[in-house]
Design a protein that fits this description.
2 copies of one chain form a homodimer.
Chain A lengths: L11 E4 L1 H15 L3 H16 L7 H13 L10 E5 L3 E9 L1 H19 L1 E9 L5 H6 L6 E8 L19 E5 L7 E5 L6 H9 L9 E2 L17 E2 L10 H15 L16 E9 H4 L2 H16 L15 H13 L1 E4 H13 L7
Helix pairs in contact in A: 1-2
Chain lengths: ~350, ~350
Amino acid sequence: MVESFKLKEDDAVRVDGVALQRSTTALFAKLGVPADDAALAADVLVSADLRGVDSHGVSNMLEVYIDRYLDGTQNLTPELRVVRERASTATLDGDRGLGVIVVPKAMEMAVAKARETGVGVVTMSNAGHLGMAAYHAMLALPHDMVGMCMTATGPQVVPTFGREPRLGTNPIAFAAPAGEEQAFVFDMATSIVPINKVRNARRMGHPVPPGHIAGPDGTPIMEETLAPEDFLVMPLGSTRELGSHKGYGLASMVEIMCSMLAGANFGNRLPRHAFRHFVVAYNIDAFTDVAEFKHTMDEFIRDLKSTPPAAGQERVMVAGQPEWEALADRKANGIPLHHEVVEWFRGICAEHEVRCEI
Amino acid sequence: MVESFKLKEDDAVRVDGVALQRSTTALFAKLGVPADDAALAADVLVSADLRGVDSHGVSNMLEVYIDRYLDGTQNLTPELRVVRERASTATLDGDRGLGVIVVPKAMEMAVAKARETGVGVVTMSNAGHLGMAAYHAMLALPHDMVGMCMTATGPQVVPTFGREPRLGTNPIAFAAPAGEEQAFVFDMATSIVPINKVRNARRMGHPVPPGHIAGPDGTPIMEETLAPEDFLVMPLGSTRELGSHKGYGLASMVEIMCSMLAGANFGNRLPRHAFRHFVVAYNIDAFTDVAEFKHTMDEFIRDLKSTPPAAGQERVMVAGQPEWEALADRKANGIPLHHEVVEWFRGICAEHEVRCEI
């Protein structure tokens, strides 16, 4: 997350993660989500808040999820259906379940297959938003597996040289265990930023940096600017010269693996809230010695962290490190939420007659 | 490839691809590479030339490959060894074989596994350079499979905020079949450009665009400049503000999948010419109906191509399209090579007493 998008500590109230999770679980349960699933959904959201991924935490996603249950888009009690299956692969129909609830079940299936054959790949159509993609990739870690998760969303990102959004922010998340070091956890939108971050910045009156968005005619806005109401998000790479065709290509790849491989149509032909998901678990033991893998991961992570910093920079970090640091801080000191967000959350609890613990 | 790096047609001689391939095959054979392998190596190189990927064609790679055979780095007659194997996965020791020759054999194994279990994943350590990564991903296409290929190279790319190269250009290639449209073929370095392109530009006296390279202290060079002798290549994303942490994370992910999962060490701990490779084949039929997949791919590709262009732009392309267009042109009209390159190639043939057909 770029600095300009960050919540100023002055405006923030520190909220206990456990309390936030209990209240969020109660909210889902009150809507009719079964108890285990409600707890899982709350865990995905609050994990994002704890890891510093505010764009995918309670404040940004909860209301959308509630709305999708209330308007009937999401099924409260989805029954996953296996469309096709082989020893290492499965295609699932998500039965309009919310992604935060059904994707962990897909990953569980991938892990079971990887245990048998070395790798498990599960695609899923007809499901809702999956929250922070890293959550699902990380589910492979306790099994000594490498996890991957991708998701195809509604069209928000402009192809290189285009003036209409045709692809989602289509993120790629990847998690690999280490030994003494924290796991390597990488989670990126294939757009230059998740669209939520631009919307948040706009809401909070913060400008977005040059090259992040384009105006309605597709021309990249190359100066710092307050996002207009009508904007297009650039693919990773920003302009063609800086490699936007790579972000565009990655987004297309994610679309193919999540949508077409799941037997679904692509984002531009589907309703906005019909997401497609793709998870993989790689069983490390099938490839190499697990202890050796973890030891080399430690060495690799230390090698990257010990890179001499560029002039004017303090340190070189490794993917997942800011989130591990946020997690340590927020578990100890609470999750910083804007006081208006706290009021809003209390209001939601009141509206649904759920006890608010924050 | 950015325009400024392109060969001016005036300096180019058009060379017949078949003739170039025959002479290249003869060169490898003369060195002691078995006939089938020599033909394969030449096919990988000339395919790059035909597809317009000059950075990975004969002119840029052949001499390196010859040198690695002559100095004993590469084994003329490698015998691939299976280190570990499961129903869907294998880890191979490349026995110091050149990647262009041994990686197609890894993909063949992945395809066979995918036919049985839905997916095949093969990692390989102890091998040489694999040429254009897309070549290997595309080997899955005739089997109605989606192919992927990644490779970890020696450290050339600087981590975000760092001043020393710690990661390779670590490319990701991906190929998915379509029906009436050409296959979707995507091949990107996770650096902002392949280092070869910067070297080529330097050799030809062309400047590199802003944000592509950093000076020796790690500071990104934000104006158009002739690359100095000492330069650092930026990750995809260029600066932190534009998302270089994403290119850096992708490069790390490629390193983990190619190196650590293959039981190998990472690039910064290995000799420069010790590459690690990773290939996957996804059997489409295991996931969904193949004809439906291809039909949706056609629709997807057409949807992207039909995106209204941004102000001042002519058209929106899809990954692989420039290469398919180059292939049609170059098959019909020959491969444009700088006249100095033609002289150089003739010299190599003379030196190795091989008949030069170009």
